[in-house]
Amino acid sequence: MASSSLPGVIAESDNGLVFACVLDGKGGAKRIGWEALDSWSAEDGPLWVHLDSAAEATHRWLEETAGLSELSRRVLLEEETRPRVLTTDDGLLAILRAVNLNAGADPDDMVALRMCVTAKRLITIRYRPVMTPRDMLSDLVDKRMGAESVPELFVRLTERLTERMNTVVVELDETLDEVEEHLEERDYGALRGQITEARQTAVGMRRYIGPQRDALARIHIERPGWLNQHLEILLRESADKLQRYIEDLDAARDRAIVIRDEISNRLAEGMNHRMYALSLIAGIFLPLGFVTGLLGVNVGGIPGVQNTMGFWITCALLVIVLIGEVYLFRKLKWF
């Protein structure tokens, strides 16, 4: 394979290679291209390679150079998969999810990051761009304040993936707080749209965070030899954070249901008030309409036809009936 250029900024995949670097054991790293990657050995230092699964070169490197088994390749290259951890002869295979921070994407449409971890090598594979590996590479190459070993790098990646979920969870709570504050404004159409979006976000994230918590817990049960006790504690902390996020998402989902029911109740109450007012109006004018309709019958014998005061007498009688109805309705406490 041809050697890729090494720009200062992190570029898009170059024939499958998003980036590769060799850790110096002091918090820094040196970026390498395909040529150096093909000739890498454990004696050269800890390796991190980040690949794009859509490129044919990625499939070929995993099979020919990385030497991964068919099972490992199939797990790492699956397009649709849930978070899980699997221990194989090739190392620890971990499929974790990250919030989708790409432009125009929904955060709950979580993107997968596939990893194969050994003591000296970390292989990460993406289907869609993931921001966390880019940030981690910047810590290594630019700031020289990154991980000093592959196990530490794996744990830091896991921590960073977990921490970024917190932003979405907090924003979800703030959205529901804002909806509750604006309930009195009666713009229920817009509020119901916000609630629906919040519920979809909570359900979408909950779908992946639960299995991801279980996957990290499985690492504690089948702890690989290269994972020391300190790093194991950090992974346990990440699992605990995921548990808290799950509880927060469940609470947010329940809050959204309660707010939706409150809006529905307010809409129903408003409709009932309007129907009640219309019923009272109809009840008041029904007798009046009956009397005027009866007097308007075009037949002989209508009282007061020959009386010049007949119209005013009729109006006075109607007013008396109206006053009597209002008094009766107030006595019945219909007003």
UniProtKB/TrEMBL annotation:
Family the entry assigns: Belongs to the CorA metal ion transporter (MIT) (TC 1.A.35) family.
CDD domains, per the entry: ZntB-like_1
Keywords tagged on the record: Cell inner membrane, Cell membrane, Ion transport, Membrane, Transmembrane, Transmembrane helix, Transport, Zinc
UniProt KW Cytoplasm keyword: no
Protein localization: Cell membrane
Record's bilayer topology term: Multi-pass membrane protein
Pfam families named among the record's database cross-references: CorA
Main location: membrane
Protein name: Zinc transporter ZntB
Transmembrane domains' residue ranges: 275-297, 309-329
Protein's UniProt keywords contain Transmembrane helix: yes
